[in-house]
Amino acid sequence: MRIKWTTLYVDDQEKALRFYTEKLGFQRKADFSQGNYRWLTVVSPEEPTGVELVLDSNANPAGKGYQEALRRKDQPALNFLVSDVQAEHDRIAAKGVKFTKPVTSTTGSVIAVLDDTCGNLIQLTQLAWG
Predict the structure, then answer these.
(1) How far is C-alpha 111 from the chain's CA centre?
(2) Distance CA 67, CA 7 (A)
(3) Which class is domain 5-127?
(4) How much is the pTM?
């Protein structure tokens, strides 16, 4: 058994696609529609056959509620592992990405949190252990 897809609810799939590809550097993997439904995924260029991030519309009331509840608590919806948080912060901040938490050392890691402009907070994490 392995993880193949994980879902992130977004308020605008097209805007999310631009953000995750143009700002963060992910690659579009799948993009097709049936009626009002759009299956849209991106992957890391470091692992193009790895886990796909499904950018799913928050038109689903359960998805929208979940997304909004996380945001109200200032809780990141996802956590991306990076080798150097400061370098990633500087790279994507130069592209206009806004951070809600600056680069911060915590127990066992260095983190920063960004706003994906589609309703979510995303944490970047650099492990200091393991």
Answers:
(1) 14
(2) 11
(3) alpha beta
(4) 0.95
